[in-house]
Amino acid sequence: MKILVTGGAGFIGSNLVADLVGVGKIKGQKIEKIVVIDNLFLGRKEFIQPLINQGQVDFFEQDLLDQAATLAVFKKCSFDLVFHLAANSDIAYGAKNTDWDLKQGTLVTFNVLAAMKDSGVKQIIFASTSAVYGEVPVRPISEDYSPMLPISFYGLSKLAAESLISAFCHNFGFQAWVYRFGNIVGFNGTHGVLVDFIKKLKADPKVLPVLGDGRQAKPYLYVADCVAGMIFGYQNSTEQNNCYNLACEGSTPVSEIAQMVIKALGLTEVNIQYAGGDRGWPGDVPQVRLDPAKLAQLGWQASLTSDQAVLKAIQDLIKQI
């Protein structure tokens, strides 16, 4: 099997690529080739450089907005499966640059799907997000919740991408696995609350500025569980368009994360300064609860709770940052 991972030098992508190299097969088929396309806007080539050096991964540094260059890679490599993870996952950045998610989310997804159609690739695994649901009641939200009214440009782009995938499945016989992630944390993290807090405290161990009022709470899924969940769903569901929440039990408030990071760094007497307001920035959904039951019915559940995932990720990131 020949596999493409878009965004494969990013946080989740690099963990996925390492896992695929390690297991060497998927759905019982030997993995013959793994190719990564990444523009390195958020990704870091060093995350996968050892695998490139060992000849286990082929790397193309290019932008998926370049339709001709994207199709050329598809034609050259004859893929069997695409993991489409490339996107702008920095919601705050997208709020400031309002066309960025349109380009790096929706249009990029169209280009990937068009290249699949033109090169005969039929299977896609897509990294979506809980942000597609928008601001919803504080209760575990299942995949059939409606209406879906995203409040961030990131969530909007992902929902549009899901719709594109659905249309390509219907019109061209594609098969898709769409995963709506909770907040993913862990090794190779490049941004987000944990990275932000660790960097701030390493720069100034006495003060920790925090966006919002600290009550924001979301399910934090450890990155290894995220990768395992994606692969499990792919191997155990057979509908034409499969859609799953990918999350863990529980949620963790930002105020508790701040205390966890402070303790892990061995600091005392830190002045936590909350900016106030119920959210960190426009487009931020302050309260998220996801129902993981649908994927659990297939036999998969996360190995770590939200709090456990945060604690493990903090230890990972302190060593890396």
According to CATH, what is the topology of the largest domain? Rossmann fold
CATH class (first level) name of the largest domain: Alpha Beta
Low-confidence stretches: none
Report Rg.
Answer: 19 Å
Helical proportion, percent range: 40-55%
Largest sheet: 7 strands, parallel
> So, the CATH homologous superfamily of the largest domain?
NAD(P)-binding Rossmann-like Domain
Oligomeric assembly = single chain
Mean pLDDT: 96
Find the count of extended strands (DSSP E, 2+ residues): 15
Query: What is the string of SSEs from the N terminus onward?
Result: EHEEEHEHEHHEHEEHEEEHEEHEHH
Major β-sheet strand ordering: 5-4-1-6-7-8-13
State the end-to-end distance. Answer: 35 Å
Q: How many distinct domains?
A: 2
What would CATH call the architecture of the largest domain? Answer: 3-Layer(aba) Sandwich
Q: Label the overall shape.
A: globular
Q: What portion of residues belong to β-strands?
A: 15-25%
How many helices? The count is: 11
Q: Give the structural class.
A: alpha/beta
Family: Belongs to the NAD(P)-dependent epimerase/dehydratase family.
Protein name: NAD-dependent epimerase/dehydratase domain-containing protein
Domain NAD-dependent epimerase/dehydratase: 3-247
InterPro entries: Epimerase_deHydtase, NAD(P)-bd_dom_sf
Describe the secondary structure blueprint for this structure.
Blueprint (H helix, E strand, L loop, with lengths): L1 E5 L4 H13 L1 E2 L2 E2 L2 E6 L10 H5 L4 E4 L5 H11 L3 E4 L6 H6 L3 H20 L3 E7 L23 H20 L2 E7 L1 E3 L7 H11 L3 E4 L6 E2 L1 E3 H14 L4 E6 L5 E2 H11 L6 E4 L18 H4 L9 H15 L1
Parallel strand pairs: 1-4, 1-6, 4-5, 6-7, 7-8, 8-13, 9-12, 10-15
Antiparallel strand pairs: 2-3, 11-14
